[in-house]
Amino acid sequence: MTKLTCPNPDCRVAETGKCVEGFPVKECPHQQKIVSIENHPVADVNNEESQQEPTPASRSTSLTETSVASGEILSIGEATDILRKRSTRVLTVIGPNKSGKTTLGISLYDFFQHASFDRWSFNGSMTLPAFEKRCHHARSQCGGSSPETQRTSRSEGLGFLHLALHSHDSGRIDLLISDRSGEFYTAIADNLEDCESLHEVSRADHVIFLVDGEKLASDERHGVINDVRMIIATLMEEEKIGVNQRVGIILTKYDIVFLSKFKERVDRDFENLVNQVEENYGGSLAEIKSFKIAARSELDTFEPCYGVLDILEQTLRRQHIVKHIAPSVSEFSRSFLQLQETDRRGE
Ligand SMILES: Nc1nc2c(ncn2[C@@H]2O[C@H](COP(=O)(O)OP(=O)(O)OP(=O)(O)O)[C@@H](O)[C@H]2O)c(=O)[nH]1
Ligand SMILES: [Mg+2]
């Protein structure tokens, strides 16, 4: 028999048999997650599949008061718990595969291990092992020709890396950085249903679109621009981004661009793309800014986290945004969406 429990601390389904979000119990997406996990917990040590690491989607969806964080990348339920409890910013990182999404997240963690930025210093992380695993993989490749970040596979689904930062005047701010496979994003124009599962976009404080500088300096330059254009156009058409979101267009791996004989052409292509996005969508988004970054530079002349800290500053900045009105749709993202900060004021 399946015991009724719910990761939402406000839900008393165990006592009342009723879902606090108004779903018929069997249809509650939170319940479905728990049931499916409870139905498949048998650890068969001979079964290769059961030895695979749990993905964010396959783990329990929330950190309850009695649970201990695994330190792995956070599922949407676990991220929602942080949003519910703390002053949080969500940085959503979107881009085709190998554009540098995961590296951007781990570069911030790496940076705050050794330094502080402006008034911000490291105040902890609930995903230390997840960061360490990703950093270790990159560092352990240093013996090779260049450090490599491990690819994020599509089956891993959506996850969030977590950093807590502190400053004297603002206190603690929690930062959630999305991580997902690039293949998912490049396929969304063909699979519009996938747009419905873009939970990381709806609640983002800052949505950034990455343009791979290395590819832009190569023969693949047209494909790179088209991919990013197509992703932005799809998200606009599907109304996944709009007046509530600050958007960043990011040229990544600028260390490679810097050394390239095509540097001027790359700068020009990037500038044209940014101008086009501003022209097409400037009036429909809260803000559009562009950044050039080298999250993992191979050149000593580039400061660590080159350009990434400007993105961080932009993400942490408070903004004047209308209070988000919770949609009446029956989606798993509901509680995530509802957790917009209500006290945002312009600074
Ligand atoms: N030289 C240089 N390499 C970088 C930089 N940022 C990322 N890389 C490399 O680019 C490759 C791809 O980076 P990832 O962070 O894994 O890219 P991703 O967008 O997460 O890719 P998927 O997980 O496949 O979607 C890795 O080998 C990184 O080491 C950078 O600033 N400079
Ligand atoms: Mg990745």
General description of the model:
- This protein folds into two domains: 13-52, no CATH class; 76-338, P-loop containing nucleotide triphosphate hydrolases (Rossmann fold).
- Helix content is 36%, strand content 14%.
- It is built from 14 helices and seven strands.
- The protein has a seven-stranded mixed β-sheet, with helices on both faces.
- The N and C termini lie far apart (54 Å).
Show the helix and strand layout.
Blueprint: H1 13-16, H2 29-39, H3 76-85, E1 88-94, H4 101-114, E2 121-124, H5 128-140, E3 159-167, E4 171-179, H6 182-187, H7 192-195, H8 199-202, E5 206-212, H9 213-216, H10 221-237, E6 246-252, H11 254-259, H12 263-281, E7 287-292, H13 308-316, H14 334-338
Parallel strand pairs: 1-4, 1-5, 5-6, 6-7
Antiparallel strand pairs: 2-3, 3-4
Helix pairs in contact: 4-5, 10-12
Short description:
The protein has 347 residues and is of the alpha/beta class.
Which hetero ligands occur in this complex?
guanosine-5'-triphosphate, magnesium ion
Helix share, percent: 25-40%
Structural class: alpha/beta
Report the β-strand fraction as a percent range.
5-15%
What does the main sheet amount to? 7 strands, mixed
Flag low-confidence runs.
Answer: 32-52, 141-145, 321-334, 341-347
Q: How many DSSP-defined strands?
A: 7
Per CATH, the architecture of the largest domain is: 3-Layer(aba) Sandwich
As for the CATH topology of the largest domain, it is: Rossmann fold
Based on CA atoms alone, the radius of gyration comes out at 20 Å
Overall pLDDT confidence: 79
Shape: globular
